[in-house]
Every structure is written in C-alpha cells, then in structure tokens.
Design goal:
7-stranded mixed sheet, 6-stranded mixed sheet, 10 helices, 13 strands, globular, binds zinc ion
Length: 315
C-alpha cells in the first residue's frame, strides 16, 4: 500500500509525485501520460530521480518512454534535476521558457545564484551537481506555443511575476493549468474541510507584483477546473482563492515597501509575514499553529529574501 502513496491521480492522465525535495509534499512533479508516452512537468532535484523511476515502473514504463521534460521555470526546486533526468531519458526533449533555455544549457549562473541564496554547503545538500543539457535537445516555448503531446494539446503561456523565465502549461483536455510558482503556494496538509489557504511565492530575484497579478488574471481567463501548484498539488481556483492570493501579494509587497531599507528588515518582514499567514490559516480553522509555523518557515525566509532584493533593486 505505502508504495502507492507518492503517486496520486488528479485527472485523466495526470499524476502527482512528491519530488522529496526539502520535506514531504513540498515540491511536486506532475507526470502526464498520453498513450504510452510520458511528459514530466517539473523535475525536483537530482535526488528525485528514483521517485520518478518508481512512478514510471508503476505504469510498466521506463525512462525511455519519457518524451518531454518541462520545468515551469529554472529555479532549482523546479529544474535542478533536469540535466540528470535528461541524461537518464534518452528520447526526451526539454521544453523551457526562452529566457531560461541558456541557463539549462550552461547552468553556471544558476549555480552561482542558488549558492548566494543557500550557501555552498546547503546548496550541495539540496541539489548535488547540476548537469548541463545539450542545446539540440532544448525546445524554447514562446507565449502561446502549442505542443502536440501524442495527440494531446499543451499550450504554454508566458507568466512573469514570480520569475521572468516562467511559463504555465494549459492542458485543454482536462482544463488543468500547471502553474509552477505563479499561482502561489498552498499545502494540502494545511487544508481544513473544503477550505484552502494560499499565499504568494516571492523568491529572489525577479519578483514583480504587478506582473504577477496580471499573470494570475491571465491564468483565470482559461477558466481552469484545477490549478496544479508545484508547492503543492492541485486545487480548484474559486474567486475566494484568487482573492486570497492577490491580497497576499499586496500585503507582502507593502511589508517590503515599509521595512526593506530598515536595518533589521529581514527579522521584521519574516515575523509580520508569518503572522499574516498564520492568521489566514486560523480563519479557515487551523489550530495546530506550531505545525503550520514549521511548514511555512522556509517559504517565509525565501519570500523575505526576494522581497528585500526587489525593493533594493527597483529602477
Ligand atoms: Zn518553487
């Protein structure tokens, strides 16, 4: 039984796999199966590869059946395992945003950027070695690019705001939008009955609140039945959910505007942001505050770094 726990079917031909990155159910990989072909949306990190293999084996398939590997953007919790996975999947092409492609072909800047955020020791622990990808196997997906995935139409939409190298993927058949980090973060183990709590991801270094709100509105124009978040899994984007997310973007942006230049900006913003999120969770009925605080700790830290960077580098 426990072998099946990592693999949950959320719609026809769509399974979610826990990448194992950082902690349980923190970062998802979506496995799309069309006939006997596989597309993977997100890659987790190098250490996620055995979990992908296990999921493929459950279908009686293997790495050679993977046709596409599709990180929504090139932050390393999404694309860190792409090089190693491409190495294991000889028939796969990488589909990536045009602004992200060069970083997949030569990851040196990505590595340096992530080391600046995490420090070298944590970087090695989280990601291992980042492997370059042969440019001949890279497909750049512009806005509105359509991929024929063995008869299933996938449309790529340019969604800046979290990062300028971010696209979302629309699966017309199941009305599912794979939103990476554009549609924020929401953890299923913090749900209460039928209510979710959702909040924005503002990680360094390209957070742009206005672009982010535009991208969220653009996602909603498709009237998705479900948004498939990388952190973590699928939810139904009701107007209440969208409002909560957008209010969160405005709230954290104001925190940054107010405190980013203060000496102890990091501590103040982290504290205020955590309290805001915990209050939102209390409103939907969450009572285990210690669990929630621990669950959101890394997101609050990374969000704070991104907000301070944004304010200090405004042009
Ligand atoms: Zn992420």
């Amino acid at each position: 039984m426990s072998d099946r726990l990592n693999l949950t079917n959320i719609a026809r031909g769509i399974d979610v796999i826990d990448s194992g990155y950082y902690s349980k159910d923190f970062a998802a990989i979506y496995l799309l199966k069309q006939n006997n072909k596989i597309a993977l949306i997100e890659t987790g990190n190098n250490f996620s590869i055995p979990l992908v293999e296990k999921a493929l084996i459950e279908y009686g398939l293997g790495f050679s059946d993977v046709a596409y590997i599709i990180p929504t953007h090139v932050h390393l919790d999404h694309a860190g395992g792409a090089g190693a996975l491409m190495h294991r999947c000889p028939n796969a092409n990488l589909v990536v945003h045009p602004r992200g492609a060069r970083h997949m072909i030569d990851p040196s800047k990505l590595i340096a950027g992530a080391m600046a955020v995490y420090g070298e020791k944590k970087f090695r622990e989280y990601y291992g070695d980042i492997i370059p990808i042969d440019s001949n196997r890279v497909i750049e997906a512009d806005d509105n690019f359509t991929l024929d995935f063995d008869g299933r139409e996938l449309t790529f939409i340019d969604t800046p705001g979290h990062a300028r190298h971010h696209f979302c993927i629309w699966d017309k058949e199941t009305k599912s939008m794979f939103t990476g980090d554009t549609f924020g973060i929401s953890y299923r183990d913090l749900d209460r009955q039928d209510q979710v709590y959702i909040f924005p991801s503002t990680s360094p270094v390209q957070f742009d609140p206005e672009a982010l709100v535009r991208s969220i509105n653009r996602i909603m124009e498709y009237k998705p039945d479900r948004v498939c978040l990388t952190h973590f899994a699928a939810l139904h984007p009701t107007p209440k959910v969208v409002n909560q997310l957008i209010e969160g973007i405005y709230f954290v942006s104001q925190l940054a505007e107010k405190y980013a230049i203060k000496e102890d900006a990091e501590a103040i913003i982290e504290d205020e942001m955590m309290n805001y999120f915990l209050n939102g969770l209390k409103k939907i009925g969450l009572s285990d505050i210690d669990f929630a605080r621990e669950r959101l700790k890394l997101d609050v830290q990374i969000n704070t770094q991104g907000l301070i960077y944004w304010q200090k580098n405004l042009v």
